[in-house]
Amino acid sequence: MSLNFLVMHKERNPNGFSNLPYRNRRRNWNLIRFLHLLHCRRPHIRVAGFLHIFTLPLRLSLSPVMSAIKHPFQLTSFSSSSPLCSLRASLLTLAVLTLLSFTYLSFTSLHSSPPSSASQLPVKLGGLNDAADEDISDVYHSAQVFRLNYAEMESKFKVYIYPDGDPNTFYQTPRKLTGKYASEGYFFQNIRESHFRTEDPDQAHLFFIPISCHKMRGKGTSYENMTIIVQNYVEGLISKYPYWNRTLGADHFLVTCHDVGVRAFEGFPFLIKNAIRVVCSPSYDVGFIPHKDVALPQVLQPFALPAGGNDTENRTTLGFWAGHRNSKIRVILARVWENDTELDISNNRISRATGHLVYQKRFYKTKFCICPGGSQVNSARIADSIHYGCVPVILSDYYDLPFNDILDWREFSVIIKERDVYQLKQILKDISDMEFIKLHKNLMQVQKHFQWNSPPIKYDAFHMVMYDLWLRHHVIKY
Questions:
Q1: 360, burial (CB in 10 Å: exposed 0-12, middle 13-18, buried 19+)
Q2: Is the dihedral of CA 360, 380, 255, 444 positive or negative?
Q3: Sorting pLDDT into bands at 50, 70 and 90, what band is 4?
Q4: Is 72 exposed, middle or buried, given 0-12, 13-18 or 19+ CB atoms closer than 10 A?
Q5: Strand 294-295 and strand 317-321: pairing?
Q6: Which of 418, 440, 414 is nearest to 427 (CA)?
Q7: At what angle do helices 259-266 and 223-240 cross, to 10 degrees?
Q8: What is the CA radius of gyration of the chain?
Q9: What is the mean pLDDT of the chain?
Q10: Which pTM value belongs to this model?
Q11: Torsion angle (degrees, nearest 10) of CA 295, 296, 300, 301
């Protein structure tokens, strides 16, 4: 029986329910009260009303008992068993109805309460874009975690640089800030320019071993001699300072971008096992440990042309690659797609004789730039693609991409297995225009993370590397 039906019955019968038996009239008016309470918007009134209705059977069954207590000499007026049976039934009824009422109230309050959790709100990272506070959470695994941890890093993180070593040989200062190994040089310079550096080793979270294999390579040092130089330098630090022995080097790190640096340090297994390696060639099959080591982005700076972006309508070429065939995957890429009419694949680097900056200008006209691994898994072409606004296609197995634990690379790049190179064109053609526009838009958001500056600026490549180091220092226990 609904509330409307009872009201209509009241209108048709001026005497209401007065012609019904008393028990039926009481039951129907309780039902009306119940239906009214269901529509009541005040929770405290609703709860009080429900309790009044649901306890009515109990109160009625207890009335003979209470009367007997007040008038003990009138016990003969009722039998000894019926009140107890009635009381037991009423208690059972009350328990069932109370359970139903609280279930209903919980259900309605759950659906009527407004969302108050911070996780339900869009996360915006203030300061990542000075022009506008945009919602860029798509390019990060967790934008809110990154923002909070980054702020903590900037306020607390300290690094001690060992002062040992002649800057005119292989230590302390970078070889140069240009070329495809510029990332190593920029880090050596930036760490000295930043507020992360401390002169007090007791305040340091991490210790930097400032030896540059790039400088060794520039002076013509052989691989064998590099290994000896690295080993002698580190052993000298161990014997002179107490800090290495606290963790056996777990809170120490080294930086090298040239692949010769990886070889030189591998000659000292104790260093590779414990210390944090920041390298440009982070391949899983050459001893790189993702949860310990850090992938350094290989950036060829200075860039020849300005950054690209917001120009999707000008990108008419499906895919582009030109370079040396110095790896198996590059040989296959050139052989399979060199003569394709939709993919611009060159069998070698583009000669400067063809025109000024022809290679760089190709990036501006292309949707997807193919980035196969070379002699190592990494390639400076990835940073080039990001800078010029061309969505990178990562074609390199076992590659721990830079800032992979911070950035969601699938939101601004295309990652395919080397074995899928034969389906490359179809994979790219299956990406819709809307998907490409989204990838391109997200690519613009991460450009700042792959740019080196001197002095360093917030959220640039240097700060992202420092953030990765900050994350790793948390797992070190003294």
A1: middle
A2: positive
A3: very low
A4: exposed
A5: unpaired
A6: 414
A7: 60
A8: 37
A9: 79
A10: 0.72
A11: 150
Cα gap 39→23, rounded to integer Å? 25
372 membership: H or E segment, kind and range = strand 366-372
Distance CA 366, CA 316 (A): 6
Closest to 400 in 3D by CA, of 277, 289, 282: 282
Percentage of residues in the chain with pLDDT exceeding 90?
A: 47
Q: Give the type of residue at 196.
A: F
pLDDT tens sequence across 16-65? 444 444 444 444 445 445 445 445 555 555 555 555 555 555 555 555 54
pLDDT digits (tens, 9 = 90+) for 312-349: 999 999 999 998 888 899 999 999 999 999 999 987 77
Q: Which residues contact 104 (CB under 8 A, 6 or more apart)?
A: none
> Strand 414-415's sheet: what is its strand order?
343-345, 317-321, 366-372, 391-395, 414-415
- Tokens 């004789």, residue located: 353
Residues 169 and 9: their CA atoms lie apart, in Å, by 103
Structure tokens at 291: 């949860």
Task: State how far the Cα of 230 lies from the Cα of 226, in Å rounded to an integer.
Answer: 6
Asked whether the predicted pLDDT for residue 2 surpasses 90, the reply is no
**CA distances for 86 relative to 27, 58, 60, 75, angstroms:** 18, 8, 9, 17
478 class by beta-carbon count within 10 Å (0-12 exposed, 13-18 middle, 19+ buried): exposed
